[in-house]
Amino acid sequence: MSTLSLRDLSVAFDGTPVLNGVDLDVEPGDLRFLIGPNGAGKTTLVDAVTGLAPATGRARFGAHDLLGKSVHRIARLGIGRTFQTATVFEELTVAQNLDIAAGARRSVGTLLRRRTRLPESVSEALETTGLADVAERKAGELAHGQKQWLEIGMLLVQDVQLMLLDEPVAGMSHDERQATGELLRRIGAERTLVVIEHDMDFVRSFARSVTVLHAGQVLSEGTVEQVQADPQVQEVYLGRTTTASQEA
Amino acid sequence: MNISPRLRAPAGFAVAAALLFLAAPLVLSDFRLGLLAKYLCWAIVALGIGLAWGRGGMLTLGQGLFFGLGGYAMAMHLKLADAGDGKLPDFMTLYGSGTELPWWWEPFRSPVFALAMVLVVPMAVAAVIGLAVFRRRVRGAYFAILSQALCAAFAIWLVGQQTSTGGTNGLTDIQGFFGYDLGDPKNQRMVYFIIAAVLLALMIGVRQLYVSRYGELLVAVRDSEERVRFLGYDPALVKLGAYVLAAGMAGIAGALFVPAVGIMSPALIGVVPSIEFLIGAAIGGRASLPGVVLGAVAVAWARSSLSEQFPSGWTYVQGLIFIVAVAFLPGGLASLKKYVVRRPASVETPAQPARKPAAEEVPA
To answer: Is B11 within a domain?
Structure first.
């Protein structure tokens, strides 16, 4: 399994720096939460790693250099992501969504044939994400939380080693959050997960480690307790209180 | 409607075959059958538009380019065959200063070469355009305008080459079709049957594409290109496939149009015909296979029968229908079926039925 390793990663939009020399290492099996105030550069960091935003510095996943590679080539290295607003193929069924996610390496001959039965990875993902009951329903008809789970399921069948999730529990009910957190724990054992999140309760419950971004730089890193105890974090991010939950 | 879903498509094709091969030749006069042959050619173009636009989201407003490339390839061969060995087509002796055939006409004496070019030229041109355009992520209106511009440029170029392409007149007065005299009504019927058979075969092929994994992937690219890219696919290649196939179908349609009508000219392939190719698909339902075919035939039929009676009014009617279809029925007439079929389907999922329409109609 591979380590995500960023060195001096910088991104600028029209000359305005958004990420400014970020150093970050995420080990295999980690469940890393990326927190920080709005505009800290969390999503931009994910964009840079997945090839969406042009960046300078160095970004490696295992032996592969990521910067300069096109989005679909980075995806084929085993790096997958979700978006703040769940992006699923609404006109297709849940099973079709997953089947497409499983198929980036399919040959032309396979593509031209009809799908006769679900690949095993798709059935497994349906079970893991708890979507087996709605497999034949159109993705557009799913509830908000289910769409997020479908996106995670798509990453599972894609067999990514590094998952970058952008606010996966935003807008979810308490129960859905709990279920999502447990899902992340389950699938995180064999993968590396980086999760952008605002909800500090969620972070406290499920984070294995936390990185705080502020103004395009890493402000602090460690366990939830270490980060919360960091006076710098309290000053710029938590607004001089120690109860992190006020920041959401 | 108690036909099981598995049998619905074969049943539909059987009905289509019966209509095309039995009913139409029995009911229609030779003249009307000839018109239908022409409409079916447009339906073949629409089939490709359904694939590229309906399923792939590429607004192909310039299919006249490919229709013309296929059509001219066929017409060039037929003109040379009409002229006979070593002789020049009539228009060249009339307008041409020289007595020599342009070098790029010469290979079209071979029927095999000409038939191959009917497919190869449009698909190769589409591949070049598609690679350049989709790699640069040109989409939507920009893609449509580009398609129109290329199509207009081709028509203008043809007009300018009076001595080698027949200019504005085009290639006219085509007499024979691989040894058969097109003046004979029997042979005209044969041409009709060829066109109907090709249409049916292509419909079966396109349906196979729609139900294949590629068909699903194409819809996914249409609805969310970025997402597909993050799954490890190159959406440019996915779109390219559909675009090239659509161009091939337009090329075949153009080639079949020549023996059916006896002419190929810039006026048949320019900007206006290219838009008209699309209208049928839009009204019938661009993502639906029977929708595009029936839409194309119906609009073509309405055009010729209504324009016989109201020569100046038809253009407005056509424009109006197009606007109404796009504004109020984006899925075309085929989407009306959904409201009929929906009801029994909702019985299976009692928790869901009211939700989706409500969410769509009421803005949050």
So the answer is: yes
DSSP state of A233: H
Q: Which residues does chain B have within 8 Å of residue A113's beta carbon, measured at their own beta carbons? A: 212-213
Instruction: Give A230's contacts (C-beta < 8 A, 6+ positions apart).
Output: A212, A219, A220, A222
Interface residues of chain A, partner chain B, Cβ below 8 Å = 50, 70-72, 75-76, 80-81, 83, 87-92, 96-97, 99-101, 103-106, 110-115, 137, 140-141, 154, 158
Task: With CA atoms as reference, report the closest residue to A191 among A111, A58, A78.
Answer: A78
Query: What's the rounded Cα separation, in Å, for the pair B192 and B170?
Result: 22
Q: Are A31 and A203 in contact (CB under 8 A)?
A: no
Q: Tens of pLDDT along B133-175?
A: 999 888 888 999 999 999 999 999 999 988 889 999 999 999 9
- Could you tell me the two tokens for B73? 């390839």
User: Which residue in A has a C-alpha nearest to residue B358's C-alpha?
Assistant: A141
Q: Which domain holds residue A46?
A: 4-90+164-246
CATH number of the domain enclosing A31: 3.40.50.300
- DSSP H/E element including A43: helix A42-49
DSSP state of B263: -
Complex-level ipTM = 0.84
Which pLDDT tens digit goes with each residue over B278-335? 999 999 999 999 999 999 999 999 888 887 788 788 888 888 888 888 888 888 888 8
| pLDDT tens profile B167-182 | 999 999 999 999 999 9
What pLDDT, in 10s, does the model give residues A10-21? 999 988 889 999
Q: Is residue B37 part of a domain?
A: yes
Residue B88 DSSP code: P
- Quote the number of domains for chain A: 1
Q: Are A135 and A166 in contact (CB under 8 A)?
A: no
Nearest Cα neighbor of A75 from A85, A84, A64, A86 is A64
